[in-house]
Amino acid sequence: MLKRSFVNRQQTAVSLLYRPQSAALAVAGARTAESSGADGVAIEISHLPLEERSCDIFRNIITCVHLPFMFINYRKDKFLGADDEARQVHLLRAAEAGADVIDVMGDLYAPAPRELTFDTQAIERQKKLIDEIHSKGAYALMSSHATGEFIPPEDVLEMMKFQSSRGADILKVVTKVDTEEEFLESVRTLMLLHREIEKPFIYLAGGKFGRMVRYMGPKFGVAVEFAVNGYDAEGVYNQPTIHSFRQVLDHLNWEL
What we know:
- This protein is α/β, with parallel strands linked by helices.
- Helix content is 38%, strand content 17%.
- The chain has an eight-stranded parallel beta sheet with strand order 7-6-5-4-3-2-1-8.
């Protein structure tokens, strides 16, 4: 069977995004997502106990379904906090275990506004990390979150070009869209990226119009959209459910 991937797809991948607190819950969430029609799984490992971040356990999680896995670990790790160096050890372990994609923060090793550093030493370290991710058979996604502000279209394009220059295979920027004017500009952003960016890209938004931006993304070339199995007390309420996203994709029948 041909290995499924987030890369080189003809259609947008609707992916589960979750933060399980154990390997057993990671497996349960992935299986639920597969049965709901997800195309992939994005797992934030920040709440997994350190003893459950071994290569064998990661491999058991990855092979529990026939879907590609993306591994993520931002600076809110329950056990490692904002230690950039320590968190990458576990992400590289996931790559070795067979993860399809590893997330690399755009300001890894040098925290910066909009999560995109221009520190030359940090950039070189990012490039070496991405080379190591590639050597283990995984793709690298570079992500920059600026969820407290709206980023103009041309700025988003420039940010993705910088991400690409560091060797990332998938480019990701998340912004905030809170007004009608920003929503119109976010549509222009999607069209600009669709025209100018050759690599797979992910453009997402939070804020009042964030969900609408996410629903429109697939028609403008967004490579991966994130969704949840359902809502709980922690709640990631700006994320649609996998079921609702599939309904939108199945019934939004218009072309560029």
